[in-house]
Amino acid sequence: METNNKISQFSFNISLSVLNHLGRNLYRSFATVLGEAISNSWDADANNVYITINKSENYFSIQDDGIGMTSKDFQDKFLKVGYSKRKEGNNRSAILKRPYIGRKGIGKLALLSCADLIYVVSKTKASDAIGGIIDNAELDVAINEDHDLYDLKPIPNGEIATFSFQKGQGTYIRFENIKQGITNNIDYLRKIIALYFRFSTLDDNFNIFVNGKQITNDDLSDLLSKTQFVWDINNISNDDYLKKAKETAISKDKGQVSSLSFKLDNGDNITGFIVSVEKPADLKIKDVDETVTVDLFVNGRLREKDILKHIRTRRVPESYLYGQINYNALDDEEDRFTSSRESIKAEDPKFQEFLQKFKSLLHTIMNQWDDFRVEKREDGDPDNTSKISKKERRARELYNETSKEYKDKDSSIKDEVSSWLEDLEKEAQFNFPSYSECFISENLIRKYIEYKKYPLSKEALESVEKYRKREEKSKTKAGMSINIRKNDDDKSYLDMDSLANLVDKGDEPNRLSNKGRIYKPTRDAVMHTSLISDEAKRSLTTVLDEIKARIRNLLK
Questions:
Q1: Burial class (CB in 10 A: 0-12, 13-18, 19+), 94
Q2: CB 306 within 8 A of CB 343
Q3: From residue 132, how far is each of 3, 78, 135, 151, 174 by CA, in Å?
């Protein structure tokens, strides 16, 4: 056996092709690249991020006033794939103590592979500006040849000297010739940034500018204007978007704001808000191919879009809701995020515990939403039958839709009219379904008589003659010559009392003939659009149930 007393030094070697597989293809969209850049600026304790986008020349740049990088930082941290600040035992930034967004150190690969050329220039207060150029064409060659290293192109000192940094520090990155082009319009990108990069809720002094104009909630004014109801979860006080949503809801007629408490059993605190809009179409942001959903944020950054997809209830309110839930405890020593960094691992136990608890909160919100909508005399949740039956709900909806034609905002007695309409709504909840039940039951009996070929009795024919003469007299008075009834046969002139005697006459209490006599007085009042007393409502409801049961038995 050959022996060697010399101790050899071995080390792992990683090829550029592995790096390519690890992260260069993480680039999915222009908005994703912006997100990586903004997150880097946040981690660098920047107060201001300036994004410049030039669609016609297909480039953009991002500059911040963060702590910047020394030459050593640039080489050993920024260009070291897999470097994570958290490995040094820190989860927060050195100066402003912000929670770090970066974790694995591979997000920069998506950032640095979206354009043909990427200029990176950085400066700390105590050091000169440094930088380099990534030429992705050359990097591709190095990857294909399986090189271990790729040397950035140097930026001439004279060119570096032209860069200026606010506060004497910061980082500038310029992306030239974006690979897929900048297809999104500026308004879209402003809205996306305003929606999904909510770092200002953690630090009021973090500002983002696009083409010189600061991103604010005004970029989402169209969405805010559609606010109907708001649920404040665990009383957030520093969220400006939530404040504006509340103001919008309160300013509207019978708008509602509700405060809810939500904590996990393990003590983790959850904050955020849920907003409902006036109609489902309002969830689509104006002029943008983007629909807002209920999203989960961790330390100010979107981590799971549309969390309701994990707990679908299939109830109507879902199509009216959007919101932002903050669960910062998901960012701990355990890496719970997928490799794309855009979602949370679905099987993660902490995430699953959150979803189960959130489902209960969602149930409360949906029931309140229904109550608020009913109070506002608008369509609610037809599946919520805890307080009102489906028939009563449909009656309300029909009444509300019909009564809109009588709501005149310019009327001199508009307050009185609104009060009258509100009173009638309560009555319509009984009268409308009662009419439909009378309509169905009586016409079913007419069909049954026709099917069985029952002859009309002498009493029935006398009733028909009486009602025909009454109708002719009314038509003459009105100057009408048209046929009113669709089928001008004798049965169409008979009411339940007469019809029942033809098909189910007898002395037994359950016979239709007996039920018809009890039914007729209140039925006539309903047909004459009268308001019904509570006693009569109970009587009609009972006898209608008995009539329906008897008719079902006959139809068998």
A1: exposed
A2: no
A3: 47, 12, 10, 9, 11
User: Angle at Cα 52 formed by Cα 217 and Cα 60, nearest 5°?
Assistant: 125
Give the integer Cα–Cα distance in Å for 536 and 469.
30
Considering the domain architecture, whether residues 339 and 436 belong to the same structural domain is answered as no
Of 183, 192, 177, 355, nearest to 264 (Cα)?
A: 355
pLDDT in the model for residue 9: 41
CA distance 137 to 150: 12
With CA atoms as reference, report the closest residue to 73 among 85, 62, 64, 61.
85
pTM of this prediction?
0.77
70 with 90, same domain: the answer is: yes
Number of domains composing the chain: 3
Tell me which residue has tokens 């959850």: 270
- As a whole number, the mean pLDDT across the chain is 86
- Give the domain CATH number at 155: 3.30.565.10
Question: Is 407 inside any structural domain?
Answer: no
The verdict on 292 and 163 lying in the same domain is no
Q: Is residue 253 part of a domain?
A: yes
Same structural domain, 58 and 142: yes
> Of 346, 375, 404, which residue constitutes the final position of a domain?
375
Shared domain check, 432 and 363: no
Same domain assignment for residues 153 and 21: yes
| 360 and 507 share one domain | no
SS3 269: strand
Q: What is the pLDDT of residues 436-446, one digit of tens each?
A: 999 999 999 99
User: pLDDT tens digits for 78-97?
Assistant: 887 666 666 666 778 889 98
| Residues 208 and 249 both lie in one domain | no
Residue 481 lies in a domain: no
Distance between start and end Cα atoms, the chain = 99
Domain end, chosen from 164, 194, 214, is at 214
Region at 491 (left for phi over 0; alpha for psi -120 to 50; beta for the rest): alpha
- CB within 8 Å of 68: residues ≥ 6 apart: 44, 122, 123, 124, 125, 127, 165, 169, 170, 171
The contacts of residue 232 (CB under 8 Å, 6+ apart) are 242, 246, 257, 258, 259, 260, 273
Length, in residues, of the chain:
556
Give the pLDDT confidence of 259-284 residue by residue, as tens digits: 998 888 888 888 999 999 999 999 99
Mean pLDDT in residue range 364-372: 93
Contacts of 279 (CB under 8 A, 6+ apart): 320
d(CA 30, CA 114): 8
Looking at this protein, which amino acid is placed at residue 234? Answer: N
Domain region containing 237: 218-375
Residue 484 maps to a domain? no
CA distance 179 to 59: 10
Q: Which residues contact 456 (CB under 8 A, 6 or more apart)?
A: 464, 490, 491, 494, 502
- pLDDT at res. 78: 84
Helices and strands (H, E) in the chain, number of each type: 16, 14
For the record, the structure tokens of 83 come out as 């470097």
User: 304 in helix, strand or coil?
Assistant: strand
